[in-house]
Amino acid sequence: MKKLLLIKYSPEIFLKGLNRNKFEKTLKDNIRRVLKGVDHRFVIDSGRWFLYSEDIDELAKRVTKVFGVQEVCMVKEVNLSFEDICHQALKEIEEGDYKTFKVETNRANKKFPKNSMEISREVGAFILKHRGDLKVDVKNPDVFINVEVREKGAYIYSKKIKGVGGMPYGTNGSTLLMLSGGIDSPVAGYMMGKRGVELHCVYFHSHPYTSERAKEKVITLNEILKSYTGNTKLYIVPFTKIQMEIMDKCREDELTIIMRRFMMRIACGLASIHNISSVTTGESIGQVASQTMESLVVTNAVGDRPVFRPLISMDKEEIMNISRQIGAYETSILPYEDCCTIFVPKHPKTKPVLSVIEKSESVLDIEDLVKDAIENTEVIQ
Ligand code: ATP
Ligand code: MG
């Protein structure tokens, strides 16, 4: 008997027709990447993906975080013998404290002498013969005993662990995430990555108004995203000069919206230089003054590529739940100021008008400020 991990990927990948191979290959590469340093072997048996390793628990922990993995099952492999299947199924059920069960069989190997109905029925009967205290319940059993009969062997399992789901990372274009130190933006990045979008991050740093610790916090959040994506680059843009200029020359109630427009210009500029097709933010409609419909429209006006806001219709509570699930929450709530909290006006405009804002900005040397910020951007690999 050998222990291994059965990997089930998102059903969406099955629907990709001729492109399915490409999605599968990317998923397999991504799985291999997270398993670096863990001894393992990939085996494919009649279309199913299995992983062997001495440390199955570690494999499961890592693989369930790979986008595109729907579920993993802790499987035991036995010979293609009906007797071995029965004995292993009995052992499997004895590992837990169950009262009712159902056997489910998937027979890909049509040469096996019994069909799946017969296997389920007879394995069930075998279990009942040895364990008179157990009962079959086909509607709502305590445990499903799964039997898969394939070319190389038979596989028995009952324990399943949910994966993150989604699409293989890197199969759906790229985006530059505006990553602040808050709760929302890491969640927005996670959601884009989960749909297969390659993620890069940009952080606007207002040293010395925002501390080194605020920057470290963003680097940590980027690391947390990397545990899902594997290769997220972080661009750190020096933003102090721009903020001082705005404070100096513009109306106080327009500071936020003008600042957001600078962030958008710089993000689009960086995206263009690095060949990234879109920008993503953690905005949610109505959450704060800069996230009213009017503000979003005025901010978008300076963008030259699609801006995605995956959290746009979500409540804070829902966002916080995902933040906890992905392990970002504890870092996000660390109390280090971000640039926006230091430069917040007392009464920010909630309904800015594009032509008015454009006029206010015209006293600034926009092109030069943007160029200077981009040229002095630091990259963290
Ligand atoms: P978050 O929780 O992501 O910080 P927030 O609710 O604090 O969001 P804002 O501060 O208005 O909202 O920021 C809205 C979005 O703008 C953020 O989700 C993020 O995408 C982007 N953003 C804000 N500040 C920065 C920054 N210093 N660097 C990079 N992106 C930023
Ligand atoms: Mg914030």
From TrEMBL:
Domain THUMP, chain residue ranges per copy: 57-160
Residues engaged in binding ATP: 178-179, 203-204, 260, 282, 291
UniProt KW keywords: ATP-binding, Cytoplasm, Nucleotide-binding, RNA-binding, Thiamine biosynthesis, Transferase, tRNA-binding
PROSITE patterns: THUMP
Keyword Acetylation included in the entry's annotation: no
Subcellular location: Cytoplasm
Short name of one Pfam family: THUMP
Annotated GO MF terms: tRNA-uracil-4 sulfurtransferase activity
Catalytic activity reported: [ThiS sulfur-carrier protein]-C-terminal Gly-Gly-AMP + S-sulfanyl-L-cysteinyl-[cysteine desulfurase] + AH2 = [ThiS sulfur-carrier protein]-C-terminal-Gly-aminoethanethioate + L-cysteinyl-[cysteine desulfurase] + A + AMP + 2 H(+); [ThiI sulfur-carrier protein]-S-sulfanyl-L-cysteine + a uridine in tRNA + 2 reduced [2Fe-2S]-[ferredoxin] + ATP + H(+) = [ThiI sulfur-carrier protein]-L-cysteine + a 4-thiouridine in tRNA + 2 oxidized [2Fe-2S]-[ferredoxin] + AMP + diphosphate
EC number(s) recorded for this UniProt protein: 2.8.1.4
Catalytic class of the enzyme: transferase
Pathway the protein takes part in: Cofactor biosynthesis; thiamine diphosphate biosynthesis
InterPro entries found in the cross-reference section: ThiI_AANH, ThiI_fer, ThiI_N, THUMP_dom, THUMP_ThiI, tRNA_STrfase, tRNA_sulfurtransferase_ThiI
Family: Belongs to the ThiI family.
PANTHER family attached to this UniProt entry: TRNA SULFURTRANSFERASE
NCBIfam families the UniProt entry points to: tRNA uracil 4-sulfurtransferase ThiI (TIGR00342)
Functional note: Catalyzes the ATP-dependent transfer of a sulfur to tRNA to produce 4-thiouridine in position 8 of tRNAs, which functions as a near-UV photosensor. Also catalyzes the transfer of sulfur to the sulfur carrier protein ThiS, forming ThiS-thiocarboxylate. This is a step in the synthesis of thiazole, in the thiamine biosynthesis pathway. The sulfur is donated as persulfide by IscS.
Protein name: Probable tRNA sulfurtransferase
